[in-house]
Protein AaeX (Enterobacillus tribolii), 67 residues
Amino acid sequence: MGLLPVMVIFGLSFPPVFFELLVALLLFLVFQRVLQPTGIYDFVWHPALFNTALYCCLFYLITCLFV
């Protein structure tokens, strides 16, 4: 597959990674809303590190799908 082109919206140039970051952020927010009531954060040592790792994993998966 080829690289995605630069998107121009209202005269602003956005690289393809910007949209991948947004999709990963939306998925992260959905995952966080689902995981919060389950009590999984009670078993996590550091919730901020867990959230960062979750976002990084989602971003990696989205990037693999786009490229």
Notes: The chain has a mean pLDDT of 90. Residues 7 and 14 are 5 Å apart (CA to CA).
